Amino acid sequence: MKFNFNNDYYLENDFVILEPLKENHFNELLKFSLNEPELWTYSLIKADSEKNLKNYLKLALKGKENQKEYPFIVYDKINKCYAGSTRFYDIQLENSSLQIGYTWVGKQFQRTGLNRHCKFLLLEFAFKILETERVEFRADNENIKSIDAMKNIGCTTEGVLRSNCPKTDDTRRDSIVLSILKNEWKRKIRSDLKQKCQPLAAFMETSNY
């Protein structure tokens, strides 16, 4: 797997741009931090205050500096505004694998298809450009909404890691593990996900959400 952490990778289609996350994106994301506390219910790193958002960005950029993560900010081209964030993380060049996660979009952008377009761009980039063999996803096992979304794009459930990491409330989280392999992406999942994006794309063009 090849990955140049010094490159500014921009992933784009007609509806969304994934831009490399920068420190100066703080002001673009602050409104979500202050006004939408529900976004951070299942987050292992909360960004629900000005202080926590600064820490969130600091950790994301530190992960990039250490060549383990590559964070993006999500730009909605239809509404011409920033909508959230996502990233590649746990990037293992030697094993040709990575994870996609830390994904969130503001409430007005949910259930619009925006996240599905983001996932398509990330997966296409991972398998076609980076030549990744495996993409993994994880979520709190209680986060049914997120789990259903991952299954809907074609992920296979591998199992649950019991009590594998601490949560922000000092309890511990059971994490569900899902994945997509390169041959699965090329054989079927890519075309299926692309097809699923089409009606949502049409919806985005006509919606005033």
Describe the structure.
By secondary structure, the protein is of the alpha+beta class. It has one domain: Aminopeptidase. It contains five helices and eight strands; from the N terminus they run ββααβββαβαββα. It has an eight-stranded mixed β-sheet, sandwiched between helices. A hairpin with a 3-residue loop joins strand 1 and strand 2 (16-20). Helix 1 packs across helix 2 and helix 3 (114-129) packs antiparallel against helix 5 (182-206). Residues 200-209 have low confidence and may be disordered.
Briefly summarize what is shown.
By secondary structure, the protein is α+β, with helices and mostly antiparallel strands. 36% of the residues lie in helices and 30% in strands. The termini are far apart.
Write a concise keyword list for the protein shown above.
Aminopeptidase, disordered C terminus, 5 helices
CATH topology: Aminopeptidase
For the biggest sheet, the summary is: 8 strands, mixed
How do the strands line up in the largest sheet? 1-2-3-4-5-6-8-7
Q: What's the total helix number? A: 5
The amount of beta strand, in percent, is 25-35%
Task: Identify the overall geometry.
Answer: globular
Could you report the average pLDDT, rounded to the nearest whole number? 93
Radius of gyration: 16 Å
Order of helices and strands: EEHHEEEHEHEEH
Instruction: List low-confidence stretches.
Output: 200-209
Structural class: alpha+beta
